[in-house]
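hey can u check if this looks right to u? its 68 residues, i copy pasted from the old doc so theres a chance i mangled smth
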Amino acid sequence: MQDVAVSTDSIRLGQFLKLAGVVDMGSDVRSLLEDGRVGVNGEAEDRRGRQLVRGDVVTVDDTELRVA
């Protein structure tokens, strides 16, 4: 599991995936979500604007990223 540091109390899922280097552009997030490749805390997620807080775990395919 990889920790990704954020400087705010919360961050939107799309911004987090861009910060973590999973996607190059925010628009790339939509295709990941539509394909069902993203999960948050063990549940499938389809909202790009989902608010994440420290400790949340985002899964993209086989990669786990924790909001730190």
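The chain has a mean pLDDT of 95.
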